Amino acid sequence: MMSKKIQLAIAPIAWTNDDLPELGGENTFEQCISEMALAGFCGTEIGNKYPKDPKILKRCLSVRGLQVASAWFSTFLTTKPFEETKKGFLQHRDFLHAMGAKVIVVAEQGHSIQGQQSTPVLDAKPHFTDDEWVKLASGLEKLGDLAHEKGMEIVYHHHMGTGVQTTEEIDRLMAMTDPSKVKLLFDTGHLVFSGEDPIAVYTKHKDRIRHIHFKDIRAEVYQDVKKQKDSFLTGVKKGVFTVPGDGVTDFYPIWKEIQESGYEGWIVVEAEQDPAIANPFEYAVMAHQYIQKLMDGSEVTSKEQIS
Questions:
Q1: Which class does domain 6-295 fall in?
Q2: Every domain of the chain and the residues it spans
Q3: What does the pLDDT look like over 246-272, one tens digit per residue?
Q4: 127: how many CB neighbours lie within 10 A of its CB?
């Protein structure tokens, strides 16, 4: 049975994509959160159509039985002065604190190619210099201290097309940062896309993991993205991501590791797709049913295999 200490959320990016506004531009905020609740989820991350006033947002969510799990924050610690990141972070922190969130998702966007629509995501990822690694680690620890002022934690989001994507890079970041100040977000989809072993990453860093994203990869689309040397966003538009159970990832052993580790917090379904092709509500229901089977002890397998 599902642990009472683990809650299921879903990201609004399946309804409206913040990086590609043309995907789901017609879907309203109210439709998005209503369908999340109807699909069975009790939490959400934040999208660009969400009200910025905590009182208004709380009212909209609470009537649907939804809470805020977290929200993405872009840092530029490797390329800009720390004070520039700090200013935006404090505003973001205070908003999430007002919404009752316990963790703040951060991802370094210095040198990132994830938003460049003509840059091959699998061939041209950035690599930080030693000096940039020091700036990143130091800056994240400072953000961790700022989060602690509100009783919150930062969770670092390893991500395709950034300087912290691979197992080696995740290991380096964890080794360079204070475990009490910098936690980790575990994202199955980005690890599989990058060619990493999700279970190995989870096992090694389970004591640092405070937030989880569940997403899957479509093998056929992945191979096409690789062959065509597509960008990250082109891959998204083609449908490289899907919900758990619809792609290549075997979530059963991953769930066992999560359960045995005593993880407490949110598991967030995040699968950015074109909503005109992949109906967000239908895929939300599919994901919730699949994860519920995992949590109930059913051994379920993925539909595809990646080669």
A1: alpha beta
A2: 6-295
A3: 999 999 999 999 999 999 999 999 999
A4: 11
